[in-house]
Every structure is written in structure tokens, then in C-alpha cells.
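sanity check both lines:
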Amino acid sequence: ELFRAMLGQLPGRWLSGLDESSGLEWIERAVARYLSVEHRDNPDGCAYPAVLSEVAKATPEVRAAFTEALELRVRAFSVHAPALAGMSPRQRAIATLATTIGGLLLARSTRGSAVSEEVLAACQALVLPEHHTTAHRNRKARS
């Protein structure tokens, strides 16, 4: 019940206010919000990184409740995720969630060092190759 109450609601804090966006813009806004210094440093930020190792050891009922909450987010991201070469929108959504949640955990664990912000930036670049390529092209054009 705790997972359903804390993590089973959509849009939740992470995805609220993104309704005016769609497609890649929606993904970019969600990822930028999640993989930000502000979110990393927020003591009331996402509980996923804090609870995952406990969920893995929990009862089948707890894991099922967690899976339901995760599936809601996978579906939300899948609707907006453009396919990448060799990757369906659903696969991209799953990879985006895994990378962002893992990236936030690593960034929180290294807070206070330069590598923490590098982790946030690297995870954003990985899950948004279109954005990274466009930004790189724009920087070269200005040079």
C-alpha cells in the first residue's frame, strides 16, 4: 500500500505540469527535471533510488506493487518516446527510466564532488541523443 500511495500515482511530482508538451519535448523536460542538481539535493525527491535495493529483497506482493508503479511510468514515457534505431518506444522508455533513476542515485551518492554533476549530464546525454547531437551542432555553428 505504501508503494501504491507514494509511487503509484501519475502524474506525480516528476511528471506534473508536462501536459502542454509532447513527444521528445516531453521527454526532455521530464529528464531535465529529474536529472537536475535541484532534484538531486531535494531531501523529499524521488524515493525510487532510496528503496530499490529493499524492493529487490521484498515479498512478491511488494515487488508486484512496485512493478505496477513502474509500469505506469513506462507507459507514460512510451507515449512520448520516439523510437531509436533498433529500439522501440517502450524499450526506450524503460532504458530512460533505468538510466535516470540509476543516474540520480549515483549523483546523490557523489554529491559534493565534480563527478556528481558529470553523472547528471552524462545520463541526460545518453537518454536524449537527439538533444545532445542538436546542441553539439548548434555549438559548432556558433564557433
Q: What stands out?
A: The chain has nine helices and no strands.
